[in-house]
Design goal:
The chain is of the alpha+beta class. It contains 31 helices and 49 strands. The protein is globular, with a radius of gyration of 32 Å.
């Protein structure tokens, strides 16, 4: 099998000024040679003829892909596969971040960087309130990083010539390539490096950043390498290198922004001596405030702090420990009175003492924002270099830093090993989706997409699997997508082992879609988790976190006795008992062990396995919002679809026999319509009134919050079995009145309740699902739409999808179901209304009547279950449920047909809102209303308003369409509409919104082409590409991704690494053409889930496992274009996270046009098995799924 490297696969075509630098997916090649025995005239004619043929074939795309010329182009990737952003500090501003991974048995540190200054703009632990370099939002970071971030000051002497330089500082001189240094940013998956080549001074500066994994302290490594590039003369240098402003531990981002000057009074640098400092200078400074800043009677003593140390590693003598370099912690010594920190006035002064004396001056260590500059002087021989290694971290106290962390960090080889481990960590994470194709760029993009997907959804790890019970699954490394561009999100990365942070329901759900494909043992875990968050009213909490554990009371004593503890006594056992009787996550548990002085001997993995096997695992959610999102529920069926792709034989088990599902109990409910609607002065009519929905929910503590629900909540949280973490994320399951235990139903019934409730919220014309919870759907910039009685077609399509699948499952199983009696009453009332509707003329009056009846019935049901379920089930046979579901499908399709008629193009609309043109007052007007309030009203007539076309509508419409001609028509309509950005050849989120009212939401505050207003939102455009692939529109799909998939875009126009997906791309609608095609909001978006779903189909086919006549088969039917194979016609990928599949396609034909001839399988013992048609039977399919097969070779 041929291999490839990164070099040469992506090129800047410097010889062609019109070239975009885009990777050429299909390059023509002439493989025939002209006969040498022809006359020269025939040779010329043959060449001309051949060129013409090649041009024609290239236009048709009928030639196989080959690698571009490697010899004459400037590579975009270095030998390590890292992207090189050339002249980074004069390129479009962009931000990104290090992965923030500590490893399973390490503690993470977050770090953000920009392409300005020396890159890193802020870093710290846990969240933005624990920064070492202050968290600044992007627009400030671009401006301030070169000044307040990391800095390097060099005094040089070569012969008689002396000079000073500040590598990476903004250039203010002429734009002369011979004078201005060359600056590159080199971006890896878990590291970042900046490089400056100064030809005028013959000096090169490289600064490498990465975080330390697999240690019990968080730390950022910064390695500054200075190279004398002159090959003939030596260079004497003095260096100050470090951070210009370092925030002592204990100060939050908010208090620094609001009272930064006052907070300086609390700041201290400890372990810095007094007066003239230590004899050898300050070598281990420790930064923290002495006590908390809160104005309270109880004083909080602060002992934990940030640390930094620097050294030169001794590469010659492994056993020798390096000397620690001295630090300047007082910025005045460096900058003097230059408070802009632009120039190191005192350090570069001719009067400055030699460095050895400079770093030993008396320093101010309090009442100012400190710095951390280490100093070193040396002479570099021609071509030689020196590396200053600095480590910035956090310790629980000074003693731990000095006595434990420092000796470990400066141990020879430690830093080199940690860089290796950091890169091995991301390789280990991404090996589950490893690909080896003809495009190294595509392969690298798969890995980066998976890594970013993990950082938002978490990496599933199997903590315990005894082969009998269900494996215990735990997700780690997840966090909400908060960064310096998404400054609105408060990210949290726990400073623990098995680190994680909470995320939003929608985000985590989407980004776990591929879990079962790369980790089949996860089974139904995610499905049950997210269905359990669905409440009795059909909504869900906003925040979800990694699961909690609680040791079962019956196993607690035996578990404690089983531990091998270094110092064992009654006090230790009492501490263990106290720790293990509380809810915990893996990381916090080990922190508690450490803080209580408990040392359990043995392998940590074995300890975890023992503990979780004795524990109950409980999901964790938190309401954490001011409304309920209209779309969150729509993503769970994607988890089910993917599960059935791998386990089609488990369909009946999943829907009927898997673990029962509880109901989440939020501290908020949807108000009834008469309490939800508000009468306001009509902004369009001076004397008129209009209806708005500004207070959709009633939350705990509100005067209208039901007392019985409050009491039920108290009973839940006081239950000894209730599990919740310190942040309030827990499992408050709604109880039943019979035994006061959590009420549960089957997966089928939970989906039935969810989908029927959503059906009952169809809008007054039966088209879109109403945003009755006060929040919009996926497009959250339409925040105003719920307030003007908005609804969405995307949710309608998803509703229909669930109902249609329930019908299929019901028909296949013919099993009865047990549903709560409260819901059964609601279902029967709704069905009777549907039957009455079917007998009507189906006009607007009939639609309004059904809408009104549905709302009343839903409100009656919700009132019945506002506090408890009765606990009584109604058994319903499949013969009864089937016709009811079919009635719903019929009605939904009527609404879809009506919706499609509302647009002139025939493209599905996405959103509507309803203007109330008549209403009735339901308040008792004989009783005076409280001041400032309006009477309660109910609308009796609406006027429909259809918003411009959004891409989400046709995308979701395609999910419920099966006819390929209809699907192709949708594609053609979209491409010929205002959704298509012709200059960029991409699909925008919406067409022009010109003329729309500001009331629609904040998107109307944005300029067209920016954020959610007519930009190219990659998550949604990727969804569109995925639907093209799912629709078997392969030619259309591969045509669109040539310009719409990030790795194939022009990286200069995109403005960042072609491996990292931004959230949105500025479209051609934006007024400033200089930004057209530029990407903003780095990484951690839903686009990774959509791309990985594409990758899954491309590599393995739509449904690799089939279950027909109670027999399981496996047939890999990839959708791989010819250009994605290497020149030998080979391509491999990792199937199910562990099986190496290799396709052999010597004809270089698109795989959907040919059929495999045979296959060879290799089992875990190394035995090979031949299969003559590449369709594997039940036994073999199960072996593949169970991990007993390690390799499959498929031959075409």
């Amino acid at each position: 099998m041929s291999t490839h490297s990164y070099q040469g696969l992506v090129n800047e075509r410097d010889d062609d000024p019109k070239s975009s630098g885009v990777f050429d997916i299909e390059s023509p090649i002439n493989t025939e040679k002209s006969p040498i025995n022809r006359r020269w005239i025939y040779i010329v004619l043959l060449i001309v003829f051949t060129v013409l043929i090649l041009v024609l074939l290239s236009a048709r795309g009928d030639l196989p892909y080959i690698q571009p010329d490697k010899t004459s182009k400037l590579e975009l990737f270095d030998d390590l596969g890292r992207f090189v952003l050339r002249d980074f500090d004069t390129a479009k501003p962009m931000s990104s971040f290090l992965a923030g991974l500590g490893g399973v048995w390490g503690v993470p540190m977050w770090a953000f960087y920009v392409n300005r200054g020396q890159g890193i703009t802020s870093f710290g632990i846990q969240n933005k309130d624990n920064a070492i370099a202050k968290f600044n939002t992007a627009e400030k970071a671009y401006q301030q990083t070169p000044f307040t971030g990391f800095r390097t000051f060099i005094k040089g002497k070569r012969g008689d010539k002396k000079w000073n330089t500040m590598p990476f500082f903004p250039n203010s001189g002429p734009d002369n390539k011979d004078v201005v240094p060359t600056r590159n940013m080199i971006i890896g998956m878990n590291e970042m490096e900046v490089e400056e080549i100064n030809k005028e001074l013959d000096i090169q500066t490289n600064i490498l950043y990465y975080t330390i994994p697999n240690e019990d302290f968080p730390a950022l490594v910064r390695q500054t390498t200075i190279t004398n590039t002159d090959q003939s003369s030596s260079l004497e240098i003095e260096i100050l290198d470090g951070l210009a402003r370092l925030i002592p531990s204990g100060l939050s981002s908010g208090v620094l922004d609001a009272m930064g000057r006052t907070m300086e009074a609390w700041m201290n640098v400890y372990n810095a001596g007094t007066g003239a400092g230590f004899q050898n200078g300050v070598t281990q400074p420790f930064y923290h405030i002495s006590q908390g800043v809160a104005d309270t009677a109880k004083v909080q003593i602060i002992k934990d702090g940030h640390f930094v140390l620097s050294f030169i590693e001794n590469n010659e003598t492994v056993a020798a420990l390096p000397d620690l370099l001295p630090f300047v912690v007082d910025p005045y010594l460096v900058f003097g009175t230059d408070t802009t920190l632009s120039y190191p006035t005192l350090y570069f002064s001719d009067k400055a003492p030699p460095l050895s004396a400079f770093v030993r001056q008396s320093q101010g260590t309090t009442s100012r924002t400190p710095c951390s500059f280490s100093g070193y002087s040396t002479t570099l021989a021609p071509g030689a270099n020196i590396t200053i290694t600095s480590v910035y971290g956090h310790a629980q106290d000074l003693e731990s830093f000095v006595g434990y962390y420092t000796p470990k960090i400066i141990r020879p080889g430690f830093i080199t090993k940690k860089r290796q481990e950091a890169n091995e960590l991301v390789d280990k994470i991404t090996e589950r989706v490893s690909s080896n194709t003809g495009s190294a760029l595509f392969d690298a993009y798969v890995k980066q997409a998976f890594l970013d997907n993990v950082l938002r959804g978490g990496l599933p790890i199997i903590l315990h699997d005894d082969g009998i019970n269900k494996p215990i699954i735990y997700h780690t490394f997840s966090r909400i997508h908060g960064d310096i561009e998404r400054d609105y999100n408060f990210f949290q990365i726990d400073t623990t082992y098995y680190s994680q942070g909470p995320g939003n329901f929608r985000d985590v759900n989407q980004n776990r879609r591929l879990d079962v494909f790369h980790t089949p043992k996860i089974g139904t875990f995610n499905i049950h988790m997210f269905l359990s968050f669905v409440q009795a009213d059909g909504y869900n909490p906003l925040t979800v976190a990694t699961t909690n554990f609680k040791v079962k009371a019956s196993k607690l004593d035996s578990l404690i006795k089983s531990f091998d503890i270094t110092i064992r006594n009654d006090a230790i056992d009492l501490k263990l008992n106290s720790i293990l009787t509380k809810p915990f996550r893996i990381g916090t548990l080990f922190n508690d062990f450490k803080s209580n002085g408990i040392i359990i001997n043995g392998d940590k993995n074995d300890i975890v396995t023992k503990i979780v096997a004795a524990s109950e695992q409980v999901t964790a959610g938190q309401f954490a919002q001011n409304g309920f999102w209209a779309d969150h529920w729509t993503y769970t069926y994607d988890l089910i679809d993917n599960y059935l792709t791998i386990f089609p034989d488990k369909q009946e088990y999943l829907f009927y026999d898997s673990s029962p599902v509880p109901f989440y109990f939020s501290p908020a409910i949807i108000k009834p319509r008469e309490d939800r609607y508000t009468l306001i002065d009509d902004p369009e009519s001076p004397n008129g009134k209009s209806i708005r929905v500004y207070n959709a929910i009633s939350a705990a503590g509100s005067s209208d919050y039901p007392l019985e629900r409050t009491l039920a909540a108290v009973e839940i949280v006081n239950d000894p079995d209730y599990v919740v973490d310190i942040y309030g994320a827990g499992a408050p399951w709604q109880k039943n009145l019979i035994d006061k235990k959590p009420f549960t139903v089957s997966v089928f019934v939970k989906l039935l309740i969810l989908s029927v409730l959503k059906f009952s919220t169809l809008d007054p014309l039966g088209m879109g699902v109403e945003m009755e919870g006060g929040k919009p759907g996926w497009n959250d910039a339409m925040n105003g739409l719920p307030g003007i009685v908005g609804s969405g077609m995307p949710e309608t399509y998803e509703l229909l999808r669930i109902i249609q699948n329930l019908i299929k499952v019901n028909d296949a199983s013919q099993r009865s179901i047990d549903i709560p009696v409260e819901f059964y009453d609601f279902l029967i009332t709704l069905n009777e209304a549907l039957e009455q509707y079917q007998l009507s003329s189906k006009d607007e009056a009939a639609e309004f009547g059904l809408w009104d009846t549905s709302n009343v019935a839903r409100e009656v049901y919700r009132k019945k279950v506002v506090a408890y379920f009765s606990g009584v089930y109604q058994t319903v046979p499949s013969s009864e449920i089937g016709p009811i579901l079919q009635n719903i499908v019929t009605k939904v399709n009527i609404g879809i047909k009506r919706a499609l008629s509302t647009t002139q193009t025939g493209i599905s609309p996405s959103y509507f809102y309803y203007e109330s043109v008549d209403h009735r007052i339901v308040s008792n007007l004989s009783i005076p209303l409280p001041p400032g309030t309006q009477p309660k009203v109910l609308p009796v007539k609406f006027k429909l308003h259809t918003l411009p076309i959004f891409l989400e509508g046709p995308v979701r419409h395609m999910k419920i369409t099966s006819d390929i001609d209809e699907l192709r028509n949708v594609y053609n309509l979209v491409k010929s509409s205002g959704l298509y950005d012709k200059p960029l050849q991409m699909f925008m989120l919406s067409e022009s919104l010109e003329g729309m009212a500001q009331e629609i939401g904040r998107m109307m505050a944005f300029s067209p082409g920016w954020l959610e207003n007519q930009s190219v939102w990659l998550h949604m455009s990727y969804k569109f590409y995925l639907e093209l692939l799912r629709a078997h529109l392969y030619d259309e799909f591969f045509t669109e991704i040539k310009t719409g998939l990030v790795p194939f875009m022009d990286h200069k126009r995109y403005g960042r690494s072609p491996l990292e997906a931004a959230s949105f791309i500025v479209s051609s609608a934006f007024p400033d053409p200089n930004l057209h095609g530029a990407g903003f909001l780095a990484r951690l978006s839903g686009s990774t889930a959509e791309f990985l779903s594409m990758w899954q189909i491309i590599m393995a086919g739509h449904n690799p496992f089939q279950y027909v006549n109670k027999s399981l088969t496996l047939k890999l039917s990839p959708v791989i274009p010819r250009w994605l194979f290497n020149q030998d016609g080979e391509l491999s990928f990792t199937f199910l996270g562990q099986v190496k599949v290799t396709y052999h396609n010597p004809s270089l034909t698109d795989t959907w046009k040919i059929t495999p001839k045979n296959a060879v399988l290799v089992d875990s013992f190394g035995h090979s098995n031949y299969d003559d048609d590449a369709i594997f039977d039940d036994i073999t399919a199960n072996k593949v799924r169970n991990g007993e097969i390690v390799a499959i070779d498929v031959y075409y």
